[in-house]
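Chain X:
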Amino acid sequence: MWRKTQSCRRFAIDGRTTRHPGYAVSQRVRKRIEEACGWAKTVAGLRKIRHRGLPKVDWRFPLAMTAYDLVRLPKLLARRDPLHLPSTL
């Protein structure tokens, strides 16, 4: 029985681009941005907006992103190093 050992899968971006450390950084940032946009579509209801026209819808995206920040805030505060918090008097 013949078994295929090499993948025939090709990528749109070749090794000249992906070998740079900046590419890996941009992929991590892209994942973070896509995660927020996906959350806004599924949880905040931006996938199916019930109004038409920019004046009626313009406030929804900032509101959704603010809600996403509030959801992320406890996790971000828990990750902070206690030694770098500002001292309280």
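Chain Y:
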Amino acid sequence: MDKPIVKAIVDLRRVGKSVFIRQLMDSLVSAGVSAQNILYVDMESLRFDFSRTYLDLNRYVEKQIAGIKWNRSYFIVPIVMI
């Protein structure tokens, strides 16, 4: 997880990807990554219902990371395609 690379977790629905992602986030915090440096966006949550396009998502991310020192950061977006 220390390399600047995109990692994709792909599998069928309802097999535990979200649980794995939450465990991964806990592991990152346990390894010393500030929880503030982990941005988790659950596009299935009504909290993100405003995000209809990549531009909406980009605006949200930029607002969330404004003013944060990002020496090591993680942007986690579970994407579900139906």
